[in-house]
Amino acid sequence: MMDLRPVGYVIGLMVMALGLAMVFPLLLDIAESRGEWTVFAQSSILTVLIGGLVALACRNGVQPGLTIQQTFLLTTGLWVVLPVFGALPFMLGESDLRFVDAFFEAMSGLTTTGGTVINGLDTLPQGLLLWRGLMQWLGGIGIIIVAMVFLPELRVGGMQLFKAEAFDTFGKILPRATEIASRISVIYLAMTMMCVAAYMLAGMSTFDATVHAMTTISTGGMANYDASFGAIDPAGEYVASVFMALAALPFVRFVQMTAGTARPLLVDPQVRGFLMTIFVIVMIMTLWRFVQQGDPSEQVFRESLFNTISIMTGTGYASENYMTWGPLPIAVIFFTGLIGGCAGSTSCSIKIFRYQLLFASIRVQMSRIRMPHGIFIPRYAGRAVDDDVLSSVMSFFVFFVVSLGVMAVLLSFTGLDFVTSISGAAAALGNIGPGLGDTIGPAGNYAPLNDSAKWILSASMLIGRLELLAVYAIFTISFWRS
After folding, report:
1. C-alpha–C-alpha distance, residues 20 and 191, integer Å
2. How far is it, in rounded angstroms, from Cα 368 to Cα 100?
């Protein structure tokens, strides 16, 4: 029988850490003098107490490494348990959300999806706004560690391709994760501080700059205003565009840059593919709007740039209701959200490298058709790609498409229209944030949806954030027998 104590111990410690993080919005609420600090005091004490008890109860089962089964359970269990406790301030605070809404908000925050069920963000206590940003910031760095340590070990979705990029775990997951986390954390914090400074130079207040920097670097997209970036000065859109793009690049390349070499970043096919894709899509959107509106203005380019990067990186900010731009931009935005950023970043969705491997495989197959006796090997970054990596990538594509269809059908069963169902499933599974249409589009939010739809979307956010197969694996009989 599988020993669950090592999993429980780590989850307990992470729950305690989440409870301790509640001290920051608590102190801010004290400074704001709105009497909301007791909400975070109660939530923090309860979260730390329960997390501590679980960790103590499982402490005698701690071991130097985890088995593959334990690792699967840990990666999924963390993102199931943490939103339960992250939801407490939303239920006890001024937002006064029911559990289903509070859980949706916390899951959206920790998975850096960015969809919200809260109306009246402009008048919320600063502590709650900071908590939304802090959850996304913590979720962002958390998913980097998962993508660089756990998923390559679990051979999920082709992520094993990056197993030896800069850190070789050799099966010793937890000890190695500590070393990786320490390096990444310094860079992550430094990028956040630079983003805060840039936002302040663009005219934001210190509070707005801090919260938006957290949700930008995490590519989370939870803003402090109902109008999202529509309430921010135009200069802020350029700042956000730069840092959203940076946060969607592989963080391992930044680690290598700090070691004195920028070449890996410059020659990385992911980075080049990501930036080229952004350039092409922005040009298409800008030219379309120039032709349709007859207004070749800086505003049109800025809005096209900002909203394209926001959707492609899965950040989910919106500065404009792009549902009014016309049918082509709407279609482009939908499919842009299904591209994503680079592996090992805070970005989400399918990710650039999988498309590159897919196209490499297609090219090889076409070459074999033309020359049946030739020997053709798919390559990535100059290296031959193993069959198990290609198989893993193909499996991911199949599971993603099937999951998208299943989630859309389930949402339609709850009474949602086709556009809301398909775009909501894509926005949740791809951790993008806003969907399409009047309800969950850039001018709306997820509050009007029924409870069943919110639970389906919450599950989709979890599944998408952990690359699908890491979650699906634990529901197989063979997983529990091995």
Report:
1. 23
2. 53
